[in-house]
Amino acid sequence: MKVVVDQAVAASADRTQAALLDPSLYEHLARVSPIGDPEVLADERHGDTVTQRVRLRFTGKISPLAARFVNPDQLTWVQETVTELPRRRSQVRTVPDRYGWLLGFAGWYEIREDGPQRSIQHFECDIAVNVPGLGRLAERGIAAGLREHLAREAEVIAAMP
Question: Which CATH class is domain 2-159?
């Protein structure tokens, strides 16, 4: 399922990008979203490129139907993000620690200026849940969670110094 989100952020594009590259962002997000236990595995800068790898855990509730296919305590993954600084563009993919055959997520985002203290995080991704008959429903649920996560992320970024 293709998902496209344009999330407004009450911060300049430069400030938004800096916040998204700040490893402490994940700790702030863990307080307001169902993504917990952030563990920064890599934060490497080479010229105009930043590569980050962060292990995350889903701490929200999943439906009883979904729990038939996955153990909620084992919903962990590594988020890999490669950012081209001059373009404010990032490639993102998740690598599930378990259930890789079941879930797929890859996409990109870029930060666009939208005024002196305002930017837009334009995000596009593909979500795949490989469960016959239920995959599409699960993908819609993940897409809704992603939209909510990006909105909370924008609030956190706006509040960061």
Answer: alpha beta
